[in-house]
Amino acid sequence: MIRIVTTPRLESLEYACRTAREHLREVAGSANEAFGEHVRELYAVTDRAERAKATTSEVGAILKRAMEELAAAQQELLLRDIEIRRLREELEGERVAGQTLTVLLHYGEPHTIYGSREDAYADTATHGRTLDHVWRPCGERPAAEFEWRCEPFIYDAGSNGFRRAFMPAPEPVGGAA
After folding, report:
1. Mapping DSSP to helix (H, G, I), strand (E, B) and coil, where does residue 138 land?
2. What is the pLDDT of residues 21-34, one digit of tens each?
3. Looking at the whole model, is its pTM more than 0.70?
4. How far is the first Cα of the chain from the last one, in angstroms, to the nearest whole number?
5. 104 forms bridges with which residues in the sheet?
6. Which residues, listed in sequence order, are joined to residue 103 by a DSSP beta bridge?
7. Could you read off the pLDDT of 96-150 as tens digits, one per residue?
8. Distance of CA 159 to the CA centre of its chain
9. Inter-CA distances, 160 with 98, 145, 156, Å
10. What does each C-alpha distance from 28 to 16, 19, 37, 46, 170 come to in angstroms?
11. Within a 10 A sphere around the Cβ of 134, how many other Cβ atoms?
């Protein structure tokens, strides 16, 4: 079959071809824009994933250090608990009646309690208090008249408490003897 192509038909085909090329350029441009957008999104998602991975590693390291510190603190608490139990057993095993404690008084108010006079001497010296300042004889004057004063106390089983080791001599009332 032979087909005869006329000039108007050729012009019509050339016009259709130009229109198809224009459409092809528009579609290719849209495709390139869409591809570029997808590549940008891919880079953004990859960046977020890398930052999340880095953050996860950092949080993991912080958690590991926290767990190590917690384990150390638990170990220290366990050791302190053992020491407290040992000291309680030691205290419960000792005879308490007649035991002397030394109390550091600040203007007559209890400040610190020591197990022995030597402990009191040593501790007050570390705080800058000279021995003659705290340990000088006070006579019969009340403890409230002194800035710092140490007093020995003895456990009194009868009263289930402590009393002064050295009681002042009773004063006669109204001159009676």
Report:
1. coil
2. 999 999 999 999 99
3. no
4. 161
5. 112, 150
6. 113, 151
7. 555 677 877 778 788 777 877 777 777 777 766 666 655 655 666 777 777 777 7
8. 43
9. 12, 28, 6
10. 18, 14, 14, 26, 116
11. 19
